[in-house]
Amino acid sequence: MGFASSTAKGLGKLLAFLLISAVCGVIAAGLMAPAAAVTWAAANGSVQFFDSLPSQLTVTPPDQVTKILAADGSPIATLFDENRTSVPLDQMSPDIKNAIVAVEDYRFYEHGGIDTTGIIRALIANFRGDRQGASTLTQQYVSNVLKEDVIAQGANADVVLNGQKTIGDKLREMKLAIALEQKYTKDQILQGYLNLVFFNNNAYGIEAASEYFFSVHAKDLSLPQAALLAGLVNGPSVYDPRVHPDNAISRRNLVLDAMLEHGYISQRQHDDAVKAPLQLKLNPPKQGCAYASQAQYFCDYVLHEVLNDPAYGATQADRLQTVMRSGLTITTTLDPRLQGPAQAQVDATAGANPDKWGTSIVTVQPGTGRILSMAQNTRMLPGQGLNFVTSYNFNVDKTDAHGNDLGGAGGMQPGSSMKPITLAAWLTEGKTTNTFVDASRRVYPLNYPWRDTCTKVTGAYDDATVSLGTAPDLQNDEPGWYEPMSVREGVYQSINTALFATAAGLNDFCDIQRAADALGMEDGAGHGTMIDMSTLGDLLGGMNVAPLTMANAYATFASDGTYCVPISITSVTNSQGKKIGGQAQTCHPNALRPDVAEAVTNVLQDVLTKGSGYNIKDNAGHTIYLGVPDAAKTGTDQYNSETWLIGYTRGLSTASYFGEALGNPADHPGVNVTVNGRFWPAIDGAYIAGPQWAYYMQKVLGFYDHGPFDPPPPSLIGPPAPDVPQGH
């Protein structure tokens, strides 16, 4: 090294020494009470600078993990920007408290926020060319609080954590540390520090670090584990035991040396800990609904509900920050006793599923609107157990999912499961279930005189005017049913011509729309738009409706006409345990008249005993019965590619779906297909969706009310139907 270079280096050290000495003088002057000291320092303006620095530090709660829980408190998922779970000091191992003090600030319990002895020691070391810090634990805590505040304002965490500090920054931290020591006890500062400090991108704070590196809680850390984590804070990358195990052990042992030197451990404890292997047991945190322990898609639905609720922030960006940083506890309506069987059943229904058939189950509790289960036979990420991967939620409206903005599937064509709506309109007008209608009629021409008071009915069925845009003559699924029959039989046998004859017999076609509105029949596209029943094809389920909407509509029948808005969140509490939100139960008694709902249920019970539901059979060909009072309706679209069974007991209303959930139904017809090893010439609602519903309901019905339904008044049933010769 040349003389000039050597001289420059020496002068640099001298200048650094003088500069830091001046800083010490400023601090000393700032802490001195006598006026003479102030007068002395004021000559060079240093005290004025020190006095101008802020002395108050607002310690806001650090980022914490938000938890989404099932109704019984079991975990669903976690969400966070920083994986942190704050714990009180008495829930931390004494070894971690002693280790961090010993290695980072052994005079912690003696100084008042800054350690002048440490500063002088660091000055001498630095003057000699050795690098040594002088920050106390209190100063480090202040530094971390300031970093978190900057990050909370949107700065990149890496930039903040790796930023360079000026002497002004250090002075500011020193003054804040002095003030902090006057406001908080040593234990409060140590607790705050250990909950805040950065250990790893997967772990902020000692609880998260303990769980990540060793799969134990902070209170259960052993001495060598605690020493390793205490050493890690000085250089999270350099001492990362996953990638630099030798560095980590060397640093751990240095911490153990410090603990021995300052009397925290005995020589034997020290020697045993030094010999201990690392024995990492990594437990990487998996956050987000894609890694939910149960009910991935329900989790995503819940997250969407929160992110669209102004109670959690003025904008969606504000609400996202609240969720990701505030340590909320979101308790939901999900019942794991139902969710487990629901998931198992949808996974089993389609098996390996090379043709990508979608299956789903969603259950709502009648009279409350609580969503109890939501399952489908897909996963959000590859490698999670099934070969059908999608972010779309089959069970909800298109706008009712968060994820990657793909949203819900947007509903599917419900087919004949819409027929009870026309039945409800019929009953609302005081007509009876046993009234006969002319189901032989197949032509409803363009000029048919529908009686309506609210809208113009559109659509027509007439072979003679297909060139003008009408549909062909009305068809039933099977021949032999074109004859007079009761409204009741038309529903339980699912006869299209009987349905149209029922609609034609209404005093006001608009009563169908009123019934649909009362049942909350929202369009699958979402945005709160109700389906428009003025198009004739929609009487047969030609629109798209989400399974959740269907399950909730049938829950209105089960609860004697009480409609409840579906809810998924019972409470939201902040990190201090204070309730800040949740979804209130919103129900509308008499949305349908109770007698109307009871009469609809009475008809839908026949579906399962002598109608289309009689075809719900097991693999041996035996009809599956629940063994309790139940009611249901099947549904199938014209391509046999959207199939349903929506059914209920008094306490559970479940929509079971099987079909083409994502693509064009016409492009994936359900004819001549093999599903789960069984060949089907044509799929019907009773064939796959039906057994799925029955097997699931058998497992879960006992958890909720499954007593008898309330009987309908005889005035809505009518006299027994006469014996009419029929050709079927």
From TrEMBL:
Residues of the Penicillin-binding protein transpeptidase domain: 541-650
The Glycosyl transferase family domain, residue ranges: 73-259
Annotated catalysed reactions: [GlcNAc-(1->4)-Mur2Ac(oyl-L-Ala-gamma-D-Glu-L-Lys-D-Ala-D-Ala)](n)-di-trans,octa-cis-undecaprenyl diphosphate + beta-D-GlcNAc-(1->4)-Mur2Ac(oyl-L-Ala-gamma-D-Glu-L-Lys-D-Ala-D-Ala)-di-trans,octa-cis-undecaprenyl diphosphate = [GlcNAc-(1->4)-Mur2Ac(oyl-L-Ala-gamma-D-Glu-L-Lys-D-Ala-D-Ala)](n+1)-di-trans,octa-cis-undecaprenyl diphosphate + di-trans,octa-cis-undecaprenyl diphosphate + H(+); Preferential cleavage: (Ac)2-L-Lys-D-Ala-|-D-Ala. Also transpeptidation of peptidyl-alanyl moieties that are N-acyl substituents of D-alanine
Cellular component, GO, one term: outer membrane-bounded periplasmic space
Keyword field: Carboxypeptidase, Cell shape, Cell wall biogenesis/degradation, Glycosyltransferase, Hydrolase, Multifunctional enzyme, Peptidoglycan synthesis, Protease, Transferase
GO molecular function terms noted in the UniProt entry: penicillin binding; peptidoglycan glycosyltransferase activity; serine-type D-Ala-D-Ala carboxypeptidase activity
A single GO BP: cell wall organization
Coiled-coil segments: none
Family as reported in the entry's similarity comment: In the N-terminal section; belongs to the glycosyltransferase 51 family.
Name under which the protein is recorded: Glycosyl transferase
Species annotation: Sinomonas humi
